[in-house]
Recover the amino acids of this structure.
């Protein structure tokens, strides 16, 4: 699990926050405040030793004395060797009573051998307990036992005796063992913590931290093969770097995942028992490994000469497989790899041919087994795989289709057909959201053919892959070149390249690329792809010629009834989003995800999910936005889609800030951009500034917030947006920070410059932002007109948080002018929205303003609950959790917690259990 020895401990123990918290809890129990023994279990390579090492590091930091032992298979027959290793730093035990010292000397002293038959086990155990107690009297002790499955039985007995008598002593014990090898004395009586596989996100991060992180298809294969096992995630890239994984594709790639060759270290862990099994057992295991499925019936048909069930019995007893309910399941995918690659190619080939005959009625599986058995190019098998890919694509299985087409291309003798199949594979991989893989296959396709059209298609796909991995300038060099070169000869291809280029143009924000987008778009005749053209036009200039752009959006939307392809759906959703048709963007991008889900490909396209997350956030669906951002992040981490990885983290950081957790927001924002050159993606640079700025605002650091938000506009005499689109929506926040930081004059120059440029027909959303910013920076009664325009503008309900901010600003302005009744209406509207979104800093501010404006509920004296507080308190008193209450009242769990935080002091209580009695004596709140 470690990725380097020169880095601090916590950052490299990836994905183990819960386990580390349990270790901290164990160390905290040294004073008797909890269980003083913890048993750590998990499969080989799960990272148990890393956690034991981390416990040792943390113990040293806290001043613990450390005693540790690591079980050794070679010493498992040496009596008391484990306890001797553990106690060696404390022996011979000078200062102990003579009886204890004598017992220890008989067990561990120079003459131990002659006392072996006379050794009294109880005296030894008591002597060890006394020795540990004497050492603990000087400073607390942490006892660490690793690989306990290999300890000798005598040591296990002594340790179990000791573990049951730690109460009252400043000693804690951490024992780690493989899940099937926990010593009998420790398997039931002590708390256990199972170290399971890493999450998808953590697995991807650990893979990326390796010296030679894999890319493309190899990355996906390693993630699948490792199944979250940290050691495998470290060892398999090493095998890849040494060339052992290249070309390791077999029938399992289509059925159960490719069986990658293992390093010797992994083989020793996952297949150490293989060589000692009977020959029929090894033969049956090879058929299991080659099959890629667990159906026992298939195995019996493929190996009629074997009694498969009987042959598998020794393997099941050795823990390599489990046979149940007509299925054979390897203990771990790496067991399958070890078995598969322990056989010769001839043996593997025979297994695949037997399986191909056994599944003759299933053309997809048969094609994959024949492909694995092929000894060279084979047009018939290649055609069968291409047909299998067509069926997979028809079901929406784009990743499966890409895998089949890539293998079909390898088996295809004709170069032109090989290139076309590689391009089809790359396109399927693009829809599946795997940019690195797309880049690899499109590059090979371009090298395979001289056909100009095929080479242009390869460049288009390669450009998409470059853009998703933050190499926008390289992407645009390819894509804009293809679009211009094919504008007259192949307008459909040119428009596809232009639409793909538009995404990278947006991210760079560069005016030169936007101008090229417009110029080349004018060269392309026809409108074979209305969605792609609408997206390209909107990216080039979303703020001017709005009626024209809306017309293109309408035509593209109407076309969706005839062409609901992923490309068209994504382009229409993106166009709606950039034109501030946010509700339409949510609907269309949601339909895109539904198409993927219905096809069984849900969770395969990070870019679509990220786009939906942004639209949901702007639409005020923050919980759904956070869920989508989380999903996009782990998908992007797996696929190597850096643009989405950074963007999803920035959205989560922004949500943290708006919900009142500035520390977490700053941490997440810093993690998002670590190692990323934001100059290559100005849109992300601006979003990063906004996340950090809002964190500062939430923390009350208005000067810091202003500096961050001011940085999204240039420092020119006439300031301009750093990003032509993203920067503009932060003008209201910039003005709000400026007023509180005493920087109104500087902010006014920004707002006035932007307003002059956008005077002609901005979107309703952008108009409201400009009205709010102008009003905040306007002295005197003229501000009211701007505030009212911001809250009363057409369609502003689509952006509830931005509208609530304007309500709050107007309410504050009215209250300061002693127009309390009017102020309360706007402040109440703001408070309702902030509570629903759980925007805690703004909730508190709106509530304080309402109290100042004289609202009875907001100004209720301590002890008097508002109607919503009473409702929540009554449900909590019935035993409902915050999540249960939130679901019943359509609130977020954080909002429920916020209200209960206010309820407790009002009722004079400190615990949830006191609610029932306190409410019984509380007068009923008028409803």
């Amino acid at each position: 699990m470690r990725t380097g020895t020169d880095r601090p401990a916590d950052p490299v123990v990836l994905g183990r926050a819960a386990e580390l918290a349990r270790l901290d809890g164990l160390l905290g129990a040294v004073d008797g405040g909890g269980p003083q023994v913890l048993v750590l279990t998990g499969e080989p390579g799960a990272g148990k030793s890393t956690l034991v090492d981390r416990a040792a590091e943390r113990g040293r930091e806290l001043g613990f004395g450390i005693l540790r032992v690591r079980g050794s298979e070679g010493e498992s027959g040496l009596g008391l060797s484990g306890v001797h290793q553990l106690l060696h730093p404390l022996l011979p035990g000078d200062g102990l009573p003579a009886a204890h010292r004598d017992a220890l000397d008989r067990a561990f002293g120079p003459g131990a051998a002659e006392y072996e038959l006379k050794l009294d086990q109880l005296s030894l155990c008591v002597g060890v307990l006394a020795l540990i107690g004497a050492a603990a009297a000087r400073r607390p002790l942490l006892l660490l036992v690793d690989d306990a499955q290999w300890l000798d039985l005598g040591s296990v007995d002594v340790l179990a005796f000791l573990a049951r008598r730690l109460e009252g002593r400043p000693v804690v014990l951490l024992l780690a063992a493989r899940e099937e090898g926990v010593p009998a004395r420790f398997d039931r009586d002590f708390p256990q913590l199972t170290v399971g596989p890493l999450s998808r996100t953590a697995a991807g991060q650990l893979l990326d931290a390796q010296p030679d992180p894999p890319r493309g298809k190899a990355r996906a294969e390693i993630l699948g093969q490792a199944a979250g096992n940290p050691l495998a995630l470290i060892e398999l890239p090493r095998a890849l770097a040494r060339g052992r994984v290249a070309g390791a594709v077999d029938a399992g790639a289509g059925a159960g995942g490719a069986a990658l060759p293992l390093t010797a270290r992994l083989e020793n862990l996952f297949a150490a028992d293989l060589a000692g099994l009977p020959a029929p057992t090894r033969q049956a295991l090879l058929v299991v490994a080659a099959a890629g499925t667990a159906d026992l019936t298939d195995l019996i048909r493929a190996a009629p000469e074997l009694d498969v069930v009987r042959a598998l019995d020794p393997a099941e007893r050795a823990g390599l497989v489990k046979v149940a309910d007509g299925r054979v399941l390897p203990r771990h995918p790496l067991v399958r790899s070890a078995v598969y690659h322990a056989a010769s190619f001839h043996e593997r080939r025979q297994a695949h041919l037997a399986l191909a005959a056994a599944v003759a009625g299933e053309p997809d599986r048969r094609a994959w087994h024949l492909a694995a058995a092929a000894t060279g190019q084979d047009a018939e098998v290649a055609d069968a795989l291409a047909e299998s890919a067509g069926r997979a694509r028809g079901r929406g299985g784009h990743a499966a289709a890409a895998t089949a087409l890539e293998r079909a291309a390898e088996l295809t003798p004709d170069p032109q057909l090989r290139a076309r199949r590689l391009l089809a594979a790359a396109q399927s991989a693009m829809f599946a959201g795997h940019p690195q893989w797309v880049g690899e296959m499109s590059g090979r396709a371009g090298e395979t053919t001289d056909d100009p059209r095929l080479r242009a298609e390869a460049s288009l796909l390669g450009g998409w892959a470059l853009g998703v991995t933050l190499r926008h300038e390289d992407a645009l060099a390819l894509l804009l070149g293809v679009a211009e070169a094919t504008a007259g000869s192949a307008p459909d291809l040119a428009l596809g390249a232009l639409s793909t280029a538009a995404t990278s143009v947006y991210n760079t924000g560069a005016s030169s690329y936007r101008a090229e987008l417009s110029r080349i778009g004018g060269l392309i005749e026809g409108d074979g792809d209305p969605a792609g053209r609408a997206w390209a036009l909107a990216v080039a200039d979303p703020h001017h010629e709005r009626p024209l752009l809306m017309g293109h959006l309408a035509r593209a939307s109407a076309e969706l009834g005839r062409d609901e392809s992923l490309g068209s759906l994504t382009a229409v959703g993106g166009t709606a989003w950039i034109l501030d048709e946010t509700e339409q963007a949510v609907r269309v991008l949601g339909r895109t995800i539904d198409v993927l889900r219905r096809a069984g490909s849900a969770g395969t396209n990070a870019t679509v999910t990220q786009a939906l997350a942004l639209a949901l956030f702007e639409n005020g669906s923050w919980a759904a936005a956070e869920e989508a951002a989380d999903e996009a992040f782990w998908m992007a981490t797996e696929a190597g889609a850096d643009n989405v990885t950074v963007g999803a983290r920035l959205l989560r950081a922004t949500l943290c800030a708006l919900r009142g957790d500035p520390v977490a927001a700053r941490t997440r924002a810093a993690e998002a951009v670590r190692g990323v050159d934001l100059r290559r993606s100005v849109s992300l640079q601006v979003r990063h500034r906004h996340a950090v700025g809002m964190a500062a605002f939430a923390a009350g650091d208005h000067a810091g917030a202003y500096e961050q938000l001011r940085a999204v506009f240039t420092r020119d005499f006439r300031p301009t947006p750093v990003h032509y689109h993203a920067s503009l929506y932060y003008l209201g926040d910039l003005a709000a920070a400026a007023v509180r930081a005493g920087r109104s004059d500087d902010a006014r120059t920004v707002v006035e410059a932007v307003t002059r440029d956008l005077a002609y027909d901005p979107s309703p959303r952008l108009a409201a932002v400009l009205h709010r910013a102008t009003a905040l920076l306007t002295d005197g009664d003229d501000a009211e007109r701007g505030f009212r325009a911001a809250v009363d503008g057409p369609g502003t309900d689509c952006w509830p948080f931005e509208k609530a901010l304007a309500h709050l600003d107007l309410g504050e302005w009215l209250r300061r002018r002693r127009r309390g009744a009017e102020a309360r209406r706007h402040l109440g509207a703001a408070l309702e929205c902030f509570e629903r979104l759980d925007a805690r800093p703004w909730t508190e501010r709106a509530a304080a303003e309402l109290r100042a404006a004289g609202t009875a509920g907001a100004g209720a004296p301590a002890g008097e609950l508002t109607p919503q507080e009473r409702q929540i308190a009554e449900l909590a008193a019935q035993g409902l959790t915050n999540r249960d209450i939130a679901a019943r009242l359509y609130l977020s769990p954080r909002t429920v917690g916020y209200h209960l935080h206010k309820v407790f002091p009002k009722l004079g209580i400190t615990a949830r259990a006191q609610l029932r009695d306190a409410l019984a004596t509380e007068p009923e709140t008028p409803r």
Strands lie at 37-42, 65-70, 141-146, 171-178, 192-194, 321-324, 327-330. The radius of gyration is 33 Å. The longest helix spans residues 121-138. The chain has 47 helices and seven strands.
